[in-house]
TrEMBL record:
<feature type="binding site">
    <location>
        <begin position="43"/>
        <end position="44"/>
    </location>
    <ligand>
        <name>NAD(+)</name>
    </ligand>
</feature>
<dbReference type="Pfam" id="PF20143">
    <property type="entry name" value="NAD_kinase_C"/>
</dbReference>
<feature type="binding site">
    <location>
        <begin position="113"/>
        <end position="114"/>
    </location>
    <ligand>
        <name>NAD(+)</name>
    </ligand>
</feature>
<dbReference type="InterPro" id="IPR016064">
    <property type="entry name" value="NAD/diacylglycerol_kinase_sf"/>
</dbReference>
<dbReference type="InterPro" id="IPR002504">
    <property type="entry name" value="NADK"/>
</dbReference>
<keyword id="KW-0963">Cytoplasm</keyword>
<feature type="binding site">
    <location>
        <position position="178"/>
    </location>
    <ligand>
        <name>NAD(+)</name>
    </ligand>
</feature>
<dbReference type="InterPro" id="IPR017437">
    <property type="entry name" value="ATP-NAD_kinase_PpnK-typ_C"/>
</dbReference>
<keyword id="KW-0547">Nucleotide-binding</keyword>
<keyword id="KW-0067">ATP-binding</keyword>
<protein>
    <recommendedName>
        <fullName>NAD kinase</fullName>
        <ecNumber>2.7.1.23</ecNumber>
    </recommendedName>
</protein>
<dbReference type="GO" id="GO:0003951">
    <property type="term" value="F:NAD+ kinase activity"/>
</dbReference>
<keyword id="KW-0418">Kinase</keyword>
<dbReference type="Pfam" id="PF01513">
    <property type="entry name" value="NAD_kinase"/>
</dbReference>
<feature type="binding site">
    <location>
        <position position="143"/>
    </location>
    <ligand>
        <name>NAD(+)</name>
    </ligand>
</feature>
<keyword id="KW-0520">NAD</keyword>
<feature type="binding site">
    <location>
        <position position="48"/>
    </location>
    <ligand>
        <name>NAD(+)</name>
    </ligand>
</feature>
Length: 253
């Protein structure tokens, strides 16, 4: 029996060409009617596909038509139904970001990889960090800071010298970006139940933006972040190439 597959593609020429080829070979159904959703593109498109389909029952299987492809499988036009049937599922929970801007407007977004705060002007940001209602760092002078999930720990977090987290670990990474004071502070590991709050100090003089998987909020006053177990994303990987293996392998490159 043919599988009901919904194909989604990024904007690149390689992704669009793959979409046309695979749809011609396997057909295409609406995501709401699909048994499997196949995302064609890079990691950025995979994140958008996961966000767009989070309310649907079908898991998402990515094939790399981008650059890095950490969340993707190798591209192949043959034996796709067999690969989908044999794929191993990983279930991840995103972060919920609630941000208040200086105009008093409240914003909310989900982030599969990380929520980051970044200075938006020439001067360093000043951030106060609280965990579960207790101030843990009165003032962090920095280019920014982020909270990353295990699935996102090899992305921006790793580039900022944060730790790679095993996919089964019930922890989040809190990582400083170019910390100036305290100069040697590199961050912390927190339980997934932690409620993290950043307050922007001197927000009018030192503007800061917040970003949740490329959803950006300008001129923020404060941001609260926590893991959201109510939301699940189901990602499929070829056997032996799941997130756990990729996270371990990445540490030996």
């Amino acid at each position: 029996m043919d599988l009901k597959i919904a194909f989604m593609a990024g904007r690149s020429a390689a992704a669009r060409a793959a979409f046309d080829t695979l749809v011609g070979q396997y057909g295409n159904v609406a995501p709401e009617a699909a048994e499997f959703i196949v995302a064609l593109g890079g990691d950025g498109f995979m994140l958008r596909a996961l966000h767009a389909t989070q309310a649907l029952s079908a898991p998402v299987y990515g094939m790399n038509r981008g650059t890095v492809g950490f969340l993707m499988n190798e591209y192949s036009e043959s034996d796709l139904p067999d690969r989908l049937r044999a794929a191993v599922q990983e279930v991840i929970n995103p972060l919920t970001m609630v941000a208040m801007d200086q105009a008093g407007m409240r914003h909310q977004a989900l982030a599969i990889n990380e929520v980051s705060l970044l200075r938006a002007g020439p001067q360093a940001a000043k951030l106060r960090i609280s965990v579960d209602g207790r101030v843990r760092l009165d003032e962090l002078v920095c280019d920014g800071a982020l909270v990353a999930t295990p699935a996102g720990s090899t992305a921006y977090n790793y580039s900022a010298h944060g730790p790679i987290l095993p996919i089964g670990a019930d922890v989040l990474a809190l990582t400083a970006i170019a910390a100036f004071r305290p100069r040697r502070w590199r961050g912390a590991l927190l339980p997934t139940t932690a409620h993290v709050r950043f307050d922007v100090i001197e927000a009018d003089k030192r503007p800061v933006m917040a970003d949740a998987d490329s959803i950006s909020i300008a001129d923020i006053d404060w941001v609260e972040i926590r893991s959201d177990p109510r939301v699940t994303h189901r990602i499929l990987f070829d056997p032996g190439h799941g997130l756990e293996e990729r996270l371990i392998s990445e540490q030996f490159h």
